[in-house]
TrEMBL record:
GO cellular component assignments: plasma membrane
Protein localization: Cell membrane
GO MF terms, alphabetically ordered: mannosyltransferase activity; pentosyltransferase activity
Signal peptide start and end residues: none
Name of the protein described by the UniProt record: ArnT-like N-terminal domain-containing protein
Keyword Cell membrane found: yes
UniProt source species: candidate division WWE3 bacterium RIFCSPHIGHO2_01_FULL_42_13
Key words of the record: Cell membrane, Glycosyltransferase, Membrane, Transferase, Transmembrane, Transmembrane helix
Length: 518
């Protein structure tokens, strides 16, 4: 009877996880964000499908990241919608539909991967801790916001986390099937973003070293090959461009990592200063600003009772610590720093918090009794309601504007600590406001034209960094964007006429053009 109740409880919790996961991701995703990278991935996925349909396999490699898993999701999904509707094409009227079905497909893939993560984690730490870990990081505002958009980072996070869990289980007990699965998932993570090659190197290198020290070189070689060979095969199978142009594809991935990821950097405004490299403090700053006080409190409390890691017979937390310290070092060394690059660490943060929380709970139960445990759970519940549930409803559907409220208002954080990126947030609502206020498709000038071009008459959208001021009637700036000097020096003044506020941020500003008096 106890076993039946336990199984029923687990099924109910899984059903609750699925319900909450979908309820926090599906509603509002139709028109909340059209990020510029999503526009790129739609085009790349279309080329990917052309390559598969017509045997032009070189088209299945589009970008150094390389985003292949995302293209496998988006390409067939959009192709199916096209064929069901008479082979319709991308245009300003269909883009949001294609984007929506692609987002839904990605959300369901994320859900399946999350459930697989719970299953694997249950084998290591038990169901309750596995479920709570997955629930916590899935509900983190910053994580949730990224999982609602068409991009690579959540897909990378889940694939990499599953790969690391499989590596750990494979280390605990050698199993060929486990090794094959591990290699496949680590290859899929690499095919999502090239930085995930570190997961494969870690599994084969550090994992192989551990096996060598414990069991000798023969077992170490067997362990390495059981992961590496399936990874290589999966990499080749799922990236057909390798079948026809192996050298150029591999060189393209390497060159992109070295050129874009390491040397070129990425514009950030930190403490009011514009920089191409956020420096050593960037990711700690992102962690504090983008992590909810709920998870921060759990992590702080967990430190009170966290056990000293045993690296000779490592626990899962110690095993993951080795990897993610290395990951953070690599990300910090790289000049290209973006806040979402911290996302792969959120399952790790949640796991540390949950393990420490259970240790503290047991300690309080032994030392002070049930009342102390109830107090601990009560405080955490209040923090969860105030800093996780409330932001979901108050920021809906623009969760990308989330910042930790302990550091002040979103506008204060944006102006004084770390600037918000436009990222196409609210661009559909902006389009509708422009049409309502200024009439039939006025010409528009943007710094980043891609989001508006996808949902507006593309011929009436111009890049203000390239095109002359005569081409557009309205100049539109996103949050943290400034009027370029060439525009200021032109024959026209641009007067602020309309502001679209989003969750306390002066997000979009519309300027009307006036001729300068000479």
């Amino acid at each position: 009877m106890y076993l039946i109740k336990k199984i029923n409880k687990e099924y109910l919790l899984i059903a609750l996880f699925v319900l909450v996961f979908l309820a926090t991701r599906v509603p509002g995703t139709y028109d909340d964000v059209v990020n510029p990278d999503a526009v790129n991935w739609h085009w790349r996925s279309e080329q990917f499908m052309v390559g598969l349909k017509f045997g032009q396999l070189e088209r299945t490699y589009q970008h150094y990241q390389p985003g292949t898993t995302l293209m496998w999701i988006v390409g067939p999904t959009v192709e199916l919608v096209k064929q069901l509707n008479g082979d319709i094409k991308y245009n300003q009227g269909t883009f949001l539909v294609f984007d929506y079905v692609a987002k839904i497909a990605l959300i369901f893939v994320q859900l399946i991967l999350s459930l697989l993560g719970i299953f694997l984690l249950t084998k290591i730490v038990g169901f309750n801790k596995a479920w709570l870990t997955s629930f916590i990081f899935s509900m983190e505002p910053f994580f949730l916001a990224n999982s609602r958009v068409l991009h690579l980072d959540i897909l990378l996070t889940l694939l990499l986390f599953i790969g690391l869990l499989l590596t750990y289980l494979h280390l605990k007990k050698f199993n060929w099937y486990m090794g094959i699965l591990d290699g496949i998932f680590l290859a899929l993570a690499f095919l999502t973003k090239s930085v995930a090659v570190g997961g494969l190197l870690f599994a084969v290198g550090v994992g192989g070293l551990y096996v060598f020290l414990q069991k000798g070189w023969k077992e170490a070689v067997k362990f390495k090959l059981s992961i590496f060979i399936p990874a290589v095969l999966a990499f080749v199978i799922f990236l057909p461009a390798l079948w026809v142009d192996t050298k150029d594809v591999l060189l393209g991935i390497y060159d992109g990592i070295e050129r874009v990821g390491i040397r070129s950097g990425h514009n950030q405004i930190i403490f009011g200063e514009d920089t191409r490299d956020g420096g050593v403090s960037f990711y700690p700053l992102v962690f504090l600003l983008k992590t909810s006080p709920f998870l921060l409190l759990m992590l702080v409390l967990s430190l009170l009772r966290v056990k000293k890691p045993d690296f000779k017979a490592p626990s899962l937390s110690a095993f993951l610590t080795i990897f993610f310290v290395g990951y953070l070092v690599v990300m910090t060394i790289s000049s290209k720093k973006i806040d979402r690059y911290l996302l792969p660490m959120y399952p790790y943060f949640a796991l540390l918090a949950v393990i420490g929380f259970y240790q503290l709970k047991e300690y309080l139960q032994t030392k002070f009794g049930a009342l102390a445990v109830k107090a601990l759970v009560g405080v955490q519940s209040i923090f969860f309601a105030a800093f996780v549930l409330h932001p979901f409803f108050s920021l809906y559907p623009y969760h990308f504007t989330y910042t930790n409220p302990l550091f002040g208002s979103p506008q204060y954080v944006h102006e004084n600590i770390l600037a918000q990126k436009p990222f196409g947030v609210g661009i559909v609502a902006l389009r509708d406001q422009i049409l309502e206020k200024y009439g039939y498709y006025p010409t528009l000038g943007f710094i980043d034209v891609k989001p508006m071009e996808a949902i507006y008459k593309a011929s009436r959208v111009f890049d203000i960094r390239v095109d002359g001021t005569r081409n557009y009637d309205l100049l539109v700036l996103g949050v943290n964007e400034e009027i370029p000097q060439k525009v200021l020096d032109s024959n026209y003044n641009f007067i602020l006429d309309h502001t679209m506020w989003i969750n306390g941020l002066e997000y979009w500003k519309v300027y009307v053009k006036e001729a300068k008096v000479r």
